[in-house]
# Entry
Amino acid sequence: MKELKLNVKCFNLKYTLECGQCFRWKEVEPNTYIGVIKDRVLKVKQDGNTLYIISNKEENLEEVATKYLGLDKDYETLEKRIVLADDKVKEAVSHTSGLRHLSQDFFETLISYIISANNNIPRISKSVNEISKRYGTKVEFNGQDYYLFPTAKQLKDVTIAEYRDCGVGFRDKYIYDTVKRINEGNINLEELKKLDTPKLKKELLGIMGVGPKVADCIMLFSCGRQEIFPIDVWVERIMKRLYFNNDEKTTKKQIAEYADKHFGCDGGIIQQHLFYNVREGTI
DNA sequence: TGCCAGGCCTTCC
DNA sequence: GGAAGGCATGGC
# Structure
């Protein structure tokens, strides 16, 4: 098995994989993670400015890993720019420098974030893994079995009750309906991805179980819309504390407007730093 | 035990 | 258009 070695700058594997944007990575040794992405298993280790990557599938590995991990983007310039936003952002970024957005699969992200509604990260992770194990393609890596996230086609005959058995709770019917519509051609993800952001959001909001926050996460994490600033309970809390004098009456709309005005096209990554830090208790 | 989690849907004004 | 209530389930 050939090992890919990549030189990186302004990249932190731990922050990138543990910031809550993805659900299928597991730390197996210090600074070493195994995860399943669209079509393969990756084992990634970071040692300083070097990433060591092996996979069950070596075809296009460098290209796939580079794109997935966001290594084709200039985060040095980005971070230098976002810390100028204000001292609160600067403080947050000082704890989590090197955190990047991944470029994740659209369908997997859609289903995962439908599951995320009023849920917690460990349980989301558990459900996504269970769906993969039951319905996804099995692949072998280092003598162990892993499962790709299933395609819509592979989920064609799955019933609402079977989703429920995967631990998704009341979101079972939303997943069922979404998969059904995709398989009927009623929703075409490839076409959606080409839409401009307002149109894309409108289409996503037409999917059962997808509201404003879930739509935002999908657009940010799998459609490359970097300016999107998702507001969940954690971000709402920290934004109120940092920018609205802890005023309980502050609305999500006010927070969204503030983020748009002050963070602009960098809203997405700033949100991610705030989210990670507030959960860790570092801001 | 009761509250909370990367909220959304339905119902009712 | 906005407010209130319900919702599965595991962790604390």
Residues 20-21, 113-114, 116-121, 123-124, 170-171, 174, 208-214, 217, 230-235, 275, 279 of chain A lie near DNA strand B (CB under 10 Å from a C1'). Chain A has three domains: 4-72, 82-100+225-283, 106-222.
